[in-house]
Automatic annotation (TrEMBL):
The gene is Ppp4r1_1. This is PP4R1 phosphatase. SUPFAM superfamilies: ARM repeat. InterPro entries: ARM-like, ARM-type_fold, PP2A_Regulatory_Subunit_A. Keywords: Repeat. Residues 11-30 are annotated as: Disordered. It comes from the Eukaryota. GO terms for cellular component: cytoplasm. It comes from Pedionomus torquatus. The lineage of its organism: Eukaryota, Metazoa, Chordata, Craniata, Vertebrata. GO terms for molecular function: protein phosphatase regulator activity.
Length: 281
């Protein structure tokens, strides 16, 4: 119901206005006319460290949980009222507070629009990418939802960082890698054939050789979708190169597990009609 709620709160002229604020406007007191000002002031005061220590240690987490709803109510034209509070919560010492924001940053990006997202949310997003696994999983689960809101040139910058998701604080955290494979399937629609071949292909092949079977099964689907995407691209050399590498890396692998992987990938490609049968043969 997000779209209808947005339409209800903001009229069309409001949605199309320029979202960037000058430094002078940023310095203005946090005054708005959507909700009673005393109510907003009370909410903003929740991030005061002395209050968190004396009243409730969980108060910052509750504040972070409610922030997208407050932002939606106030509208993007009043984001300057919340910006400082958001940045304070994003750098909170408690990882649970940062984790809460990481899970909702894609929702906030929809509310704020592309200009405010690029200026105010992307730096926070980048910080979460380097955080603890408990925080990183929040941005990973909604990676596609966030990146699709960015302009193409900004989106391409994250291609270099996707490889880092293969490294976790705990190597036994296989669900992290399974989620990465799921997100990469969605990300195929956001990138060109060359980007898929150059950046996503090596990650997919690494996941196909994972020690955990659940990760491998999702990765077979990822590779088959990659084959389909590259075949549909105008440049056919990428799909031929990918198929040749599949044969070389898995079909002719000395280990039986590698050859088994090749069979499973072929099965998935066939079942999902990723290639015409003559091309498959």
């Amino acid at each position: 119901n997000m779209d209808s709620t947005l339409h209800y709160i903001h009229n069309d002229s409001d949605l199309s206005t320029n979202s960037s604020f000058s430094p002078e406007e940023e310095r203005k007191s946090k005054v708005q006319d959507v909700v009673p000002q005393a109510l907003l002031d009370q909410y903003l005061s929740m991030t005061d460290p002395s209050r968190a220590q004396t009243v409730d240690t969980e108060i910052a987490k509750h504040c972070a949980y409610s922030l997208p709803g407050v932002a939606l109510t106030l509208g993007r034209q009043n984001w300057h009222c919340l910006k400082d509070t958001y940045e304070t919560l994003a750098s909170d010492m408690q990882w649970k507070v940062r984790r809460t924001l990481a899970f909702s940053i894609h929702e906030l990006a929809v509310i704020l629009g592309d200009q405010l997202t690029a200026g105010d949310l992307v730096p926070v997003f980048n910080g979460f990418l380097k955080d603890l696994d408990e925080v990183r999983i929040g941005v990973l689960k909604h990676l596609h939802d966030f990146l699709k809101l960015l302009h193409l040139d900004k989106r391409r910058e994250y291609l270099y960082q996707l490889q880092e998701f293969l490294v976790t604080d705990n190597s036994r955290n296989w669900r992290f890698r399974a989620e990465l494979a799921e997100q990469l399937i969605l990300l195929l629609d956001l990138y060109s054939a060359r980007d898929i071949y150059d950046y996503l292909r090596p990650i997919a092949f690494s996941l196909c050789a994972d020690k955990v079977s659940s990760v491998r099964w999702i990765s077979y689907k990822l590779v088959s979708e990659m084959v389909k995407k590259l075949y549909m691209a105008s440049t056919s050399t990428f799909v031929l190169d990918l198929i040749n590498e599949l044969v070389e890396k898995f079909c002719r692998c000395r280990k039986w597990s590698g050859r088994q992987t090749f069979v499973f990938i072929c099965q998935t490609i066939s079942e999902d009609d990723c290639l015409p049968m003559d091309q498959f043969a």
